[in-house]
Specification:
The chain is mainly alpha-helical. It is 68% helix and 5% strand. It has helices at residues 17-48, 52-65, 68-83, 86-107, 110-134, 144-157, 159-176, 188-206, 225-238, 240-269, 273-298, 304-324, 328-356, 359-391, 408-431, 439-448, 471-484, 499-509, 518-542, 553-563, 568-578, 594-599, 612-627, 642-653; strands spanning 395-397, 403-405, 459-465, 489-493, 546-550, 586-591, 633-637. A hairpin with a 5-residue loop joins strand 1 (395-397) and strand 2. The longest helix is centred in the middle third of the chain and has 33 residues, at 359-391.
Length: 668
Amino acid sequence: MPDVSLPSNPGNVLRIRAFRRLWIGLGLSSLGDWLGLLALTAMASSLAGASYPDQSYAIASVLFLRVVPALLLGPLAGYIADRLDRRWTLVAGDILRGLVFVSIPIANDFTWLLVATVIIEAISLVWLPAKDATIPNLVPRDKLEAANQVSIATTYASALPAAGLFVALSLVTKGLNVSLDWLNTPVALALYFNAASFIVSGLVIATLHDIPRGPALAFADRQGVWRTITEGWAYVIRTPVVRGLVIGITGAFAAGGVVIGLARVYVDDLGGGDPGYGVLFGAVFAGLALGMWRGPRLLAAMSRRRLFGFSLVSAGVLLALVAAIANLAVVSLLAVLLGFFAGSAWITGYTLLGLEVEDALRGRTFAFVQTLIRLSLSLVLAAAPLIAGAIGEHRLPLADEAALDYNGAAITMFGSAVVMVVVGAFSYHHMNDRPGTTIRSELRKSLMGTTGVYARRGVFVALEGGEGAGKSTQARLLGEWLTHEGYDVVLTHEPGDSVVGRQLRQILLDHGTGELDHRAEALLYAADKAEHVEKLIKPALARGAVVVSDRYVDSTLAYQGAGRALMPLEVERIARWATAQLRPHLTVLLDVEPELGLQRLESPDRLEAEPVLFHQRVRDCFLELAGGNADHYLVIDGRLDRDLIAIAVRERLTADLVLAEKHSGAQT
């Protein structure tokens, strides 16, 4: 989702010379990884023979052998990476992988292809942790998040140019139609280009002299993979929400894995050959990247829990369509959508894990989830072709001598789609936190752009409620607690906490103003909000502060929209435009009956003096707003003891405080 207070632009980190060179090397190595996956599976298919089962089994063998090094060497890879000089580990790892890739088309032997696959993956297991450990040493601490964003984006995004290159190189090889020894297979040119990308990457990283050697950590200090897995399983099994998330995340990757594992054979069934294979591969990863980067924002009206299940079901339905429609052009478009929803499910599930798992177990749980994702995806990549090969080719006769061909790849995809829909429906049913809200209404809100923006740095809390609900008291108590905990706290209110706002407050609340046109009143409140957000709230969030505001947009929607009986959608558009769609991470609604709240007032202002029916409409609107977004609202009975209310607010806010930064003695 958009970031209104991001401290460092990801593009700016590339201005750091050392990181830029490492990024170039990472880009070339990632390009080689994806191009190598395409080329090796394509070459395995061509060396296996002409029969459908042989080709499927050959591809499955290559993909399965990509898993074996992780299973056998995973516990040692990080230890080895920390014991070796990191710079030379990166350089030697790239050059060695390049040389192994060169040998594959020269040998032109299926057995050596399998052996080379294991060697390449074993080298990568050491290269990757060495790379991850190097990045923090090349950038300042405040730019580390941006550096990691660029690193991850490069790793996944390089699948797209790899797919394009594979298509282009396949077409060039076919066009030349040569018989030279060094182009003895249709994918030889791709393998040579792949080898060159690794070697050039190693040479680029060799020019980097800022990479430290790295610590020599004792192996005894490392937690073993087996212990991580067992502790992770124990926590997942006893925690229903986390269990559902892990199953769903694994299912999202499995959906993409089935398509990738069967793509080569499936494209052959459709008559696409190597170019078609590259197109479908690129389509899936284009969708995955788009879903991870933009999915939660494009579907921002949904709560995370609902979005997770909805994305899984959508991915399953699209996978079923991919299996049923025997047209490569249509299938490629559907594959983009499939990847989009799979990517949305993955990133949403990953975020939910961070919110649902307690801090003491978060690291181990994420380590377990990452291990499970890697293993499950790799196993699906290997198993899917085996199942497809066992099913074989089938023809269903139709009327007038027509026939319908559905081979093992399509049938396996369809079976996986059914499983995906069931998993998604299960997750949606058990994680639905808005039972009274329809998917259609949330999709409509998302498409109309009536959702909001949440800051990625700093925490924004708004206290809302009718008159006499105790908002000011709770804002003060929350500010005192946050300050005691060491956070930079900004206590503010609406209207009137800006230079312009103070003049507007006088106009809006003073009895001497008399009766204002209702639209003029709404516009004056919008003007106050625009100044408030731009001059106070955004700068505070940008430095990592916790902003606690007594009233925000919901008050405009309730008082001017419902209370004044203006068109709710028009009032909301004005208020959202004035605040640039900025939403609080948490809105605390203190709910009291209007009669009780009004009795607590000593000197009612112009709005407080409105009749009870006005305030009842206001209260109903507040409750309706809170009921539509449980992720970001906390509704509390305003009649409770103030200390009990304060404790409830602190407990709910704790999960969001990871976005804020602590500052000693800094408050506004």
